Structures are given as C-alpha cells and as structure tokens.
C-alpha cells in the first residue's frame, strides 16, 4: 500500500476497546476489519505475535506493538536468565563494578529446574520469607508467600511439577527471597508502575515516561507469620486490592509519582530522592541492555513496557517484573487522563503521520534516555539526572479529554496522576 503520510487516514487494527482505541479514534484514524491485513498500525495481543507475525509480510510503513520474542524480558524466568547471563559476561570481561550493579532482582531461582539449588538456598537462610510467582501470570494470580518447605508440598506434588510429567505441561514458577523491609508510607506497602518505550534494539532506543504512579495496599504492612498469607498486606496489584474489604473505589489506591517524589524530598532530602529516581532509570536501562543481544529486532516493531518497581527501606530499587502488555484500561477519570496522554505521546513518537522532529529528546511526557548510549541534555552540574517524576507540562488537560460516560458519572476523590 502506498499513500502519502501527511494526507492519508491511518488505518488501525485492535481487539482492545479501551483507552488505546479512544486515542487512535481521537487522532482521526480509521479501524479496519478484524481479518483484514490492510492496516498501518496494529495494537496486537501477544498471541497474535506468536501465531501470526512470522507468517505475514509487512510493508514498509506497518507497525506493531510487540517485538517477536518479547518474552525474553517479560517472562519472569527469562528475565532472571538474561540478567544472570549479563552479569556473568561482565565478570568474564573483568568489569566487576558494572557486574555488581545487576543486583536489582531479589535472589531468584526457577522451579522445577532449580529446585535442588533452592533447597540449599533455603537451608542457608533459616527464617527467611520466600515468594512464589507463576512465570506467565499477571495481576497477582497464583502468587503466595511461605516460610517452610512443607508449605509448598501440595504445589510440588502437582503432576505438572513431578519429574515424570510431560515437560511441555510443567508449570514453571519463580521463587524469590521476599523483600521484607519495603519502604512504607502511612504504614502501607507500595510499588511503582513505570512506562518505558523501546523503538528498537539495534541500536537500543529507549524513551521513559515521566508520569507514573504508585499502587498501595489497603492493609498496614507487617511481617507477622500469621499474616503471611494475607494478600491485601503483601500484594500491591490493583486487581487484588480492589477486592479488599473496605476498598474505596472513589479514592482508589494510587498516588502520582510526582506526589511520591515530593513526599520523599520532605522525608529523606532532595539529593537522596534525586538519586533514587536516577537509580530507577538506571535499572530500566540495565534490564534492556541485558536482553539487547537476544531480542529479535524488527523495524516494524516497538514495545511499551510496564515496569513494576519496589523501593525498600534503604532506598534500594528492586525490579519485580516487566510487563509487555501493561493495563491500558482505566478505572477512574484520573487514570484515564494519564493513560490517554501516555498513549497519545507514544503514538507521536511512533509517528505514523510523519510529523516528528527526529532530533528531539523530549516528546510530550517522554524523555529519551538511551540511543545507542546514554542521552541527556542536562548540564554536568545538574542535580536532577532523571526527568522521571517531574512535571509533564505538555500533558493534555483533563477538561480537553473526552472520557467515557461511566467515568464522568463517578464521584471520585482521586487526584491527578500526571
């Protein structure tokens, strides 16, 4: 298909009718039929990438929102494998200081393959709390904490874990040392959802969105053994927390990352807060570098990643997981405003219309942080080295964003997330 980018209507395909659908329509794009390959932009699900992508020929201007082997970063077991491989490679090159920086995943092993190693690790850490996570699940499904090997006996005896089971049907889990001293606000645990956009891996080009949010638990945090199984204390997933007794939908369970940064400046000082946000940006870059050589780069592909990050009481950054399909549905008007701006700015960078200045390092709420090397237009003396958590002055104001009627009718006290 050949058409002038400046004047032609962009054709899109998607099976998701949430914020991304609204953003594409707001740009004047036109939806195509479900089984039609005559599209310019496809917001595809991961199943389509696995089953269809290798069997179609895309023309020069068609774009799709996943890399072919996205799972190298976004499956928990593959993330662990690639980070360990990167660390070993750096050590072999004598880059010990750089290798030591790849310590942002809690001690992690893959089960059942490394069950023997886990038993040894478990015995070396008596009294430690561990967390089990299925590799392919999301929204907190299948996650549980334990302190005794007997507590996973039923799981271990499952036929899908047994030594005689068909390897293709084995349920793969990650077991990790639980971060039992998280930073708390108001006595509650929280994590952060941060968005990074990768336009390519050869070379690596990454943009970081400066607006993000924290997700809080409904219950006050404690490490009492009797509460180890309480998901409302230990899991920050919104899908879990909104089912908690007393959950207030009007108030929600989110803070903007700007509000978090302001709070941290008042609590630990500006220098420590700025360093923390630089550390968050740093671990995102390191995780991408760890998969760069194994990722199948394709000029038709890009990826918007949702990073889930935890901060502990010592202000150390831990990556919990990386999502290839972060939720782009909205439960409140504030949530909608954030995701509408995020996705609209993302499409400005994808630039289907051919309007973008390719030399820019800031685009809407996105800041270019890596382009075959670190990128910064800040002076060497600047105290802020990451724009993460700073004001997005280019955001579309809430009153100019047309929201679904259901959100407009909600009586909510949730503050802006931008």
Question: Can you walk through the features of this model?
Answer:
The chain has 418 residues and is an alpha+beta fold. The chain has helices at 19-26, 46-51, 71-74, 76-92, 96-100, 115-124, 153-157, 231-234, 238-241, 257-268, 270-291, 333-350, 405-408; strands at 11-14, 30-31, 41-43, 63-64, 108-111, 130-134, 144-146, 173-177, 184-185, 188-201, 204-209, 213-216, 254-256, 303-311, 317-323, 362-363, 366-371. The protein contains 13 helices and 17 strands. Strands 9, 10, 11, 12, 13, 14, 15, 16 and 17 form a 9-stranded antiparallel sheet that branches. The radius of gyration is 22 Å and the shape is globular. The chain starts with 10 loop residues before the first strand and ends in a 10-residue tail after the last helix. Residues 1-6 have low confidence and may be disordered.
**Basic shape:** globular
- Put simply, the count of helices is 13
Using only CA atoms, what is the Rg? 22 Å
* Major β-sheet annotation: 9 strands, antiparallel
Helix/sheet category: alpha+beta
What order do the helices and strands follow?
Answer: EHEEHEHHHEHEEHEEEEEHHEHHEEHEEH
Helical coverage, percent range: 25-40%
End-to-end CA span? 38 Å
Mean pLDDT: 90
Strand content: 15-25%
How many distinct beta strands?
Answer: 17
Extract low-pLDDT stretches. Answer: 1-6
């Amino acid at each position: 298909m050949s058409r002038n980018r400046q004047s032609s209507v962009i054709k899109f395909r998607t099976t998701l009718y949430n914020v991304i659908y609204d953003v594409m329509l707001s740009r004047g794009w036109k939806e195509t039929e479900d089984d039609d390959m005559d599209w310019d932009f496809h917001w595809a699900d991961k199943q389509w990438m696995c089953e269809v992508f290798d069997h179609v020929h895309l023309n020069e201007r068609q774009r799709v929102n996943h890399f072919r082997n996205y799972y190298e970063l976004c499956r928990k077991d593959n993330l662990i494998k690639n980070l360990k491989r990167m660390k070993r490679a750096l050590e072999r090159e004598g880059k010990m200081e750089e290798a030591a920086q790849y310590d942002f995943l809690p001690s992690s092993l893959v089960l059942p393959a490394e069950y023997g190693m886990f038993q040894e690790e478990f015995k070396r850490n008596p009294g430690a709390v561990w967390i089990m996570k299925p590799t392919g699940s999301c929204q907190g499904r299948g996650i549980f904490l334990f302190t005794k090997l007997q507590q996973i006996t039923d799981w271990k005896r499952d036929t899908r874990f047994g030594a005689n089971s068909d390897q293709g049907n084995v349920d793969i889990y990650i077991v990790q040392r639980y971060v039992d001293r998280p930073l708390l606000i108001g006595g509650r645990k929280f994590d952060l959802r941060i968005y990074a956009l990768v336009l390519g891996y050869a070379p690596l080009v990454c943009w970081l969105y400066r607006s993000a949010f924290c997700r809080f638990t409904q219950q006050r945090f404690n490490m009492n053994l009797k509460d180890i199984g309480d998901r409302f204390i230990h899991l920050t997933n919104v899908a879990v927390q909104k089912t908690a007794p007393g959950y207030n939908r009007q108030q929600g369970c989110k803070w903007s990352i700007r509000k978090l940064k302001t709070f941290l400046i008042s609590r630990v000082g500006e220098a420590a807060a700025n360093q923390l946000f630089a550390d968050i940006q740093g671990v995102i870059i390191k995780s991408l570098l760890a998969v760069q050589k194994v990722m199948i780069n394709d000029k038709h592909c890009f990826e918007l990643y949702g990073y889930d990050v935890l901060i502990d009481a010592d202000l150390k950054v831990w990556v919990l997981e990386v999502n290839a399909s972060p939720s782009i549905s909205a439960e409140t008007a504030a949530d909608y405003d954030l995701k509408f701006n995020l996705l609209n700015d993302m499409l400005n960078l994808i630039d289907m219309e051919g309007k973008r200045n390719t030399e820019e390092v800031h685009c809407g709420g996105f800041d270019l942080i890596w382009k075959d090397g670190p990128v910064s237009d800040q002076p060497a003396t600047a105290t802020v080295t990451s724009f993460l958590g700073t004001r997005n002055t280019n955001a579309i104001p809430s009153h100019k964003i047309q929201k679904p009627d259901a959100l407009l009718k909600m009586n909510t006290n949730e503050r802006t997330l931008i």
